[in-house]
Amino acid sequence: MKLLNTSYRTSIILLLAVSFASAEAQRILPYYNGTTGGQGVAAMVEYNGQLVMGGSFSSFNGHGRMNLQGWDGTTYFDYPGAFDAVGTKIASLIVFNGDLIAAGTDPNFGNVAGWDGSGWLHLGSGPSTNRVVDMCVFNGELYVTTFLDKDVRRWDGTDWVVVGEMFSSAVNALAVYNGELYAAGNFTHNTSVPDLRRLAKWNGTGWEEVNNGLSGNVNDLMTTPDGLVICGIFLNRGDGQQSFPKWTVYDGNAFSEPASGVGPMGSAEVKYISRVGDAGYLLGGYSAPSLLVSENGYRELAFRSTGCGLSYDGNDLLGVIGMDTSLVAVRGVGRLLDGTYQAWLDAGNVKAAVTPGSEMFRDKLRNIAGFEAPKRSGTHSIFSITPWIIGERSGATIYDMETYSSNETPSYGPHATTMDGDYMDRYLQVWKLDKTTISEHAQHWEDADYVAPYMIVNWPGNGDISNGEPAQLAPYADLNANGIYEPQAGEYPLIRGDQATYSLIHSFTGLDLGVMHYAYADSTDVDRYNTVFTNLTIVNRGQEALHNARFGMFTDFDLGGASDDLIGCDSLLGLSFVYNGGNLDLGATGQLGYGTNIPSQGVLFLNQPMTAHAFTDPYAGDQLSAINGNMNGMPFTQTGYASHFQYPGGLFTDEAAGNTPGERRSVSSIGPLTIEAGDTLCVDMAFPFARAASGDRLESIAALKVRAQALRDRYDAQGVACNVVPDLITRVAASAPLQFNVFPIPASDRVTIACSMMQGKATLQLLDATGRIVRAMAWPTGSDQVVLDLNGIRNGSYFISLGDAGMRSTQPLVVLR
Fold first, then answer.
1. Which of 92, 605, 698, 724 could form a disulfide with 574 if both were Cys (CB 3.0 to 4.6 A apart)?
2. What's the rounded Cα separation, in Å, for the pair 475 and 724?
């Protein structure tokens, strides 16, 4: 199956010029079907117009050829006869004197062979019986280094010659920079030079140390316009006079001191440098996020294990070492694309990781807890959350109760006819925006020098209707009321809070979920500042109703050290929570404890009554029972009567039951209810964090409940429907609010909208509770009121939206007959 068709198949989606969006490459997605078997792609080169990939694999895109494959987008090129036996593999590829040179492990060719267009040539008996790890061309000759020989060897056209003296340890990498040959590895000296610390330069007669060397092993070198990029495990210059985050750039005179390392994991080893485009490069390894270095500065990317890079046929390709790319099933080779795989919601006092798919708040880059509270503290209160859904359809119980989703789970994006490469490109990402960025777009989109951010240009306002996707997806300001998201015409996303992320999920129960997490930046508003909010719109895309449905939020609490937690709930508040089992929260492997200043973390329903809460162990298969608030299928009877709330308080707590503190996972849920075909269930939730001034664990529970009540009161007072995202974006400076009246309320057959402020062209929209436009019309020029016909409009809550080029306002409407 070809995965690179980039055409969108719908009139709803507008194609925008690339120049309209600033580049934000942060995703790696599959290139065709990738490779199978082995360890992936270690080297890539363009040869005779073909992309040639080498490494350790058994096939590419379903075409069988071990370890080496040529491909021009249509035809496969197998290059038979070398590196195609069991136990062989390729570490490096290069074009030399018009021939394709492959090096690695193939004893039949001495581990290096040359393809002259018709067959493989021996280069003498080969440089060594040991595996070749790197190659380069210097002064018109081929140079290699091997796994164990501790030297550099040169092919003189007849034989292999050792270059200079043997080093004290391994040589891992070779490069040519400014016309000079460099070698790097774990060596510290040779016989003639006592100080030859990990980086050496050939001076024509011998090896000399470069700029006092480096303090630790060097893994890779790459020549770039910035200079010679160097990576490994070194933290200092060889004489200790400079500090490095395990990588640096040598400009011919001095090492740079990069301001950023590869992610926050200080122990991570930087293994590879991969070329990205003409000027950028990617630093990566096995145990930390990669770092993209370009003219735009540093950017941490949500994947690892990339070992080589090449621009080919308009794609920035990356070779992947191993099958784990920290993302999706990118096998062997992938494409670097704009967009974000893992975003951080961090406007408030919590830093929460958000990725596509159903599992949320887990840092999938590092597979650790992703809900840091307070932010910059290093302590976490939630490992991850996942929405759970259960119901009955055609008499059968169906459910979607995924936990700890795998990278390959296809739950991202809306329901669609075909979920191919185009679909993945569009939906396997998270959109993150803030009010300031949106307002800048709304006010400056017509400016000659304005470049719209990727997140605004590619906001998923519309789906591909020709692919069976919904026409309307993420909320946006539809200023001309045509149902098409048009950022190039000044339209913009609508978000809640000061900062928000948005993603789309489809469930196996036939539901589509739009998920907006949002936060507030005002530190004086302590309740909202210490809370992450979530708005979920759940649409039944099936042909039948979902009866006896329950929606639950599975939460894997990790309150600091996760081995001493307890849980509880407050059914009146709609709150479930975690607290510490003792007065000291110790850390654990990979987890930092809160010590004696112990908080409590909550999960709060804002617009729906919580009807059940229970401890659950997903590994024990008790999800169905837990989401219904049961134990082994039966209600709890701890209070002396049947209840669907476990540990509701008083004498009936996790602690009072005599349970040993430990790992705690729970699910709190709403329902049962019916979601008709085509209907939407909207759920507003909050994840408040609270810590008592005393730091006492039980007093922190009380502080959390006070915060939860304040959040509920404020939510109720705002009076904004769950399915509505108010337009609070300023489009023109100092515009007066648009005032209009709607009457009668409730309305039956028709409603009158009166506005004396209208001066230019305007549109009038009737929105349902989901924000969907159900009726629209142009405001008559010169009129101060219009009558909107409501025939065919069902009873319910609606909103009237009225706006012109400078302002837009919304008023509620109830239709009742």
1. 605
2. 9
